[in-house]
Amino acid sequence: MTFVVTEACIKCKLTDCVEVCPVDCFHEGPNFLVIDPDECIDCTLCEPECPVEAIYSEDELPPGQENYLELNAELSQQWPVITEMKDPPEDADEWREVKDKLQYLER
Description:
Blueprint: E1 3-5, E2 26-28, E3 33-35, E4 55-57, H1 67-76, H2 92-95
Antiparallel strand pairs: 1-4, 2-3
């Protein structure tokens, strides 16, 4: 099983989760983070660290977020690993409550 970063992370890209990951399974894109399902060891440490509640177990994905499992797997093969917390985007707070953000995902 793996954990999955979902839509709430798009344009927020808060990195609180990456520092607690013991296997460095997070990958960073321009405005989104993803988890490599082949590296994730299902330790559950990242889920409570996410301030926007964007991380879920693949078995507990909210309705409408199932496509993020495949998106995480795909983009984790393209984006570099991130292991240290970084400053969030300047406008991250403006995006916290926005829904339907897939259209804003930058690859």
